[in-house]
Structure formats: structure tokens, C-alpha cells
């Protein structure tokens, strides 16, 4: 190979001629020898048995690669690329803050107190939030908690003296649908019946020995208003000795005033035979007095309006019966059995479009 001799050959020539090398040239020769030793040492076994020409050619190729290595490398990471950019001066501003020593001491003391509480076991730290109740993952968490609580109360106070069911004050308990609506869970009828049975058993405990815990446990099953405590409002007798009653039937309305007397009846200022022409209507109007044998004991003065004669007569019978109950409350049951107290809700059915009447349709004509 014709060209410039390698530094090794150049150094031999200088040494053979007896001349001395400069410091820079000798340093270059030493570096070249180190590179040659580094690349030829791992390959001695590989090139065993080959001539020196093959070894030197591989050495020259390695030196060429090393010379070209700095120019072919590229930055593989953005961080390296950013660090390789040219450095320029950037204006910086520093801000120093000071914290009062007292605040640092307070924070340190609170941290130490929390560590002491945790070490004593007073504060339990969980890796994740705990459920509110053991029934949290069940289908009916609220009902299950209430049912279990009622069972525990029944087991705990099973030996307390109780009253007979007939002696216990009547309480309006929630129905199944009302309880479902209150807790927002679809409770089965069988489960709710079993729970209510225990609730009623706890309610039979003697009132003087009733624990407060039991009263609080029964409260979710009670209605807001106890219907058994409702009492009907009685209309009193006025200063003239009159009692007032109102009755309705179909579209008729009647108001009657009763006073003790000889059995006179005035309807809209007219005697009964003038107010009602039919005998059946006359008997219907005073049926309440007749069924209780009070025809000759009270005088009746009534105002009737709306509807026909049948509706007015039956409305008047209801008004007279209610006024009679004010004078004599024990007559309420016999009058109810006679049908004078209960309101008859039946009315005339409305006419439909395309019909002759409520049900009747026009006759079909072929032609």
C-alpha cells in the first residue's frame, strides 16, 4: 500500500537514523500504540495463523472507524439534546421567605401528638375507607341493620314483664309499602312481617319498665300520625237546643236542624206532603226517625236543593240522622245499620260522545 507511512514506521525510521523525536510526535506514537494494543489484543485468537497483512488491514479499518465516530453520533435522548445546546446567561430572581418560629413549633408539636396517638392505638389509620355498617354490601343494608337491632333488643329484654295484647295501647305501624318508601329499599313481605312481629312483641313490655333503647328502636316502624288517637269532632247543641246535620245524595244537598218537639217536619218551609209528592220519598226522608222510634220526639226544619225528588229525600234522611246523633250519640250504631249514616257515592254516569246516553248507542241503519 503506497502512501504516508504509519507513525510506527516513522518512529522506527527516526530511531534507526539516530535522531530524536519531538515531544508532540512521541506522544502521538504512544497513543497509536495504545490503540493498536486495545484493538489487536481481543482478536489475537481470532487472527491466529494469519499473516501480518490481514492484521494490519483490520487495524487500519478500526482506526478509520474511530476517526469517524465523533462525527456520526447523534443525541438519543431529549435531555441530552437540551444539555448540548449553547449556554446563555438567563436573568434569575430569588425570593426568600421567613416563617415565624412559633408556627414551626406548633406544627411540630401537632405532628408529635398525632404520632403519639397513633403509637398508643387511639387513632387507627386504614389503607382505604371502611363501610359504615356490616350490612353495607348486602341487598338491604338499612333493613338488615334495623332487623338485627330489633332481634338484639328482643333477646336482651325477653324477661321483662309484658301486658296482654288487649291491654296494650293501639299504635299505627307502617305498612310494607310505607316502610319501603321511607328507607328506599324493596323489602320482601315475609321479612317485614317477621320484623313487625318482633316489634309488636317489644311493644307489649310494661310501660313503666319500657327501656329508652326499646322506644328508640321502635320509632322507625311507627307512623307519623297515630290514626287510633283521632277523635271525631262532635257538633254541639246550640243555645236554642238545635242540632245541625248535612247530607248528600247524587247532586242533591240537604241541611237539617233538629229540636225536641212533637214531630213536626218542614222542608223548605212546606209540609212534607207538599214537598214530596211520592209516598216512597216521604218514607225515605224520615227513615232515620222511624227506625229509632223518634218520630214524635223531635221537630225537623230542613233546606233541600239540587237534583230530583229521590236524591233530595235520601239526602234529607242522611242530614236528619247526623243531627239525631248529636242529641243521642248511642244511636249511631243503629242508624249506621239502617243505612242512614253512610254516604252513597253512586252518581249518574256521564254521557259519552257518539252515544245516545251513557251506554246506549244509535241504532244501526243498513240503508
TrEMBL record:
PANTHER family: RIBOSOMAL PROTEIN S9, SMALL RIBOSOMAL SUBUNIT PROTEIN US9M. Residues 352-367 have a biased composition (Basic residues). Residues 348-367 are annotated as: Disordered. Belongs to the universal ribosomal protein uS9 family. InterPro entries: Ribosomal_Su5_D2-typ_SF, Ribosomal_uS9, Ribosomal_uS9_bac/plastid, Ribosomal_uS9_CS, Ribsml_uS5_D2-typ_fold_subgr. This is Small ribosomal subunit protein uS9m. Keywords: Ribonucleoprotein, Ribosomal protein. GO terms for molecular function: RNA binding; structural constituent of ribosome. GO terms for biological process: translation. The lineage of its organism: Eukaryota, Fungi, Dikarya, Ascomycota, Pezizomycotina. GO terms for cellular component: mitochondrial small ribosomal subunit. NCBIfam families: PRK00132.1 (NF001099).
Amino acid at each position: 500500500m503506497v502512501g504516508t507511512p504509519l507513525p510506527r514506521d516513522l518512529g522506527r525510521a527516526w530511531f534507526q537514523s539516530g535522531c530524536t523525536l519531538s515531544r508532540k510526535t512521541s506522544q502521538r506514537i504512544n497513543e497509536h500504540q495504545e490503540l493498536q494494543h486495545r484493538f489487536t489484543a481481543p482478536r489475537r485468537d481470532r487472527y491466529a495463523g494469519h499473516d501480518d497483512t490481514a492484521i494490519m488491514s483490520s487495524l487500519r479499518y478500526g482506526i478509520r472507524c474511530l476517526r469517524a465516530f465523533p462525527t456520526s453520533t447523534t443525541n438519543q435522548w431529549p435531555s441530552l439534546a437540551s444539555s448540548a445546546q449553547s449556554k446563555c446567561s438567563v436573568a434569575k430572581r430569588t425570593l426568600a421567605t421567613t416563617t415565624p418560629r412559633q408556627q414551626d413549633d406548633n406544627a411540630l408539636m401537632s405532628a408529635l401528638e398525632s404520632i403519639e396517638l397513633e403509637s398508643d392505638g387511639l387513632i387507627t389509620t386504614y389503607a382505604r375507607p371502611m363501610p359504615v355498617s356490616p350490612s353495607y354490601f348486602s341487598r338491604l343494608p338499612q333493613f338488615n341493620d334495623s332487623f338485627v337491632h330489633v332481634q338484639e333488643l328482643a333477646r336482651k329484654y325477653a324477661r321483662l314483664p309484658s301486658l296482654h295484647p288487649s291491654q296494650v295501647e293501639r299504635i299505627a305501624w307502617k305498612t310494607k309499602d310505607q316502610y319501603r318508601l321511607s328507607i328506599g329499599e324493596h323489602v320482601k313481605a315475609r321479612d317485614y312481617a317477621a320484623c313487625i312481629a318482633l316489634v309488636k312483641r317489644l311493644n307489649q313490655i310494661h310501660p313503666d319498665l319500657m327501656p329508652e333503647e326499646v322506644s328508640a328502636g321502635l320509632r322507625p316502624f311507627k307512623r307519623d300520625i297515630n290514626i287510633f288517637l283521632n277523635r271525631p269532632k262532635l257538633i254541639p247543641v246550640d243555645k236554642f237546643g238545635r242540632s245541625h246535620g248535612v247530607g248528600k245524595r247524587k247532586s242533591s244537598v240537604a241541611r237539617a236542624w233538629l229540636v225536641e218537639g212533637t214531630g213536626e217536619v218542614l222542608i223548605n218551609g212546606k209540609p212534607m206532603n207538599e214537598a214530596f209528592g211520592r209516598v216512597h220519598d216521604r218514607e225515605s226522608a224520615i227513615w232515620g226517625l222511624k227506625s229509632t222510634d223518634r218520630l214524635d220526639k223531635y221537630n225537623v226544619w230542613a233546606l233541600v236543593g239540587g237534583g230530583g225528588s229521590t236524591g233530595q229525600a235520601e239526602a234529607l234522611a242522611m242530614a236528619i240522622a247526623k243531627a239525631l246523633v248529636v242529641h243521642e250519640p248511642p244511636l249511631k250504631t243503629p242508624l249506621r245499620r239502617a243505612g242512614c249514616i253512610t254516604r252513597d257515592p253512586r252518581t249518574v254516569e256521564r254521557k259519552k260522545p257518539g252515544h245516545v246516553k251513557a251506554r246506549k248507542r244509535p241504532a244501526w241503519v243498513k240503508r
